[in-house]
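Sequence in, structure out.
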Amino acid sequence: MRSSPDRYRFGEFILSVRQRQLFRGGRPLPLIPRYFDLLVLLIERRPTAVSRTEIFDRVWADVVVSDGALSQAIRTLRRALGDDSREPVFIRTVSRHGYSFLFTAVVEESDEAPLHESLPAPPAPVPEANLDEIDVLVDRLLSDADTDEDRRDAAEQLHALGTATAVARVIARPRPARGLALLRDTRWDVEGAHEVPLLGQPDGLAAAWQLIRLRVRDAFILAERRAIAAALGAAFAGALAGLVGGLVLMRSPGSEAPFTIAPVLGLLGAISGAVGAAGIAAGVGAAEAIARSRRSAAIIGGATLGGLVIGAVAQVAVRWTLRGLFGLELGQIGGPIEGLILGAAAGVGYAATTRRPGGGGMAAPAGSARARTVIVVGVSTAIAGLILSLTGHPMVGGLINEIAQASSGSQMTLTPLDNLYDEPSFGGGTQLLLAMFESGLFGAGFAGGFTRRPRH
């Protein structure tokens, strides 16, 4: 790949890499940072076709977005360049592969050269003559005949012409809810777009519901992938915790546990970790994908709700299993409270170590940033495990011990672990250490899987 010069000149455009600005005839054209980076990448690689995978790895390296985000970025670049997808001059779509920059007369130059002999005055407010154009775009925005892509394109163009004027023209129409929702959703993708209020507007509540539907639809696949990855990460952590616990139990003074205890505890740990992480990850993923503002509060709330729901479901499932298969009735079986506390702790750790990516999407930290997220989430859930143990809420290890104590002849009792600390029965110190160990490892496994960036 050729090294990047200070700027590129092509046609009537200048792309300044150092200033991170696109100019047309000396006048700056606003582009959000990721779209600017995409244009630089395509020009750098001209005329080679750049694959979608490479684009996502380079431009969206720290965030997980849907394939629609790339299509939207290309639409915006074409609009800024005055290009046509059907007869492209600058950006060509390479079917089933990616995109290429077609224009061959690109001049690489230094930023010391003048941009233009004289810069024109800043653009004036939208004149009356543009209202007809705005009305045409509003018709497209509200039309049932146009595709979703056409409607999003119309919304982005309306922001470029003036957000306030566009909102006023939309709410003057009957049933403006979908148009307001699209304007609100696309404002994050147009540099210089302004706020689109929903509360207090005609059809405001309906518009808010439409907005949620839009974001849920676009984010479902991403949230699903991340929930699966988080479940696998927590399953691995739970299996590791179970295996380590089983090996320590086998080596404890007075233990009669067979060698099979380690894989059995490992399997139980993997199942528990996967189920718990799937619920919390679903809550975090949905909240992060839907919320563009108040991200931290949404993530913590989603994680807490996900943990609560999956904990309640798990509690019912464990009770039915113990009663139906083994005839056991245990008074204390963890579930909703444990899930709620662990979910909240995981949400706090994740929200504190990641930030909302520019242009939307879901955070995907890499390298040291990802390691920091894993550590902080692990510490947060370890503290949550400590609090739960101190307040008499057993974690998985405590539940296994109670089941073993209630089962005649079971060798899965964890009492021999107390001999390591000279404690009688399954004492408080042992419970605290075990709860912190398993919950901390669970949180680290959850975060490690959840922050893994899926391949496009």
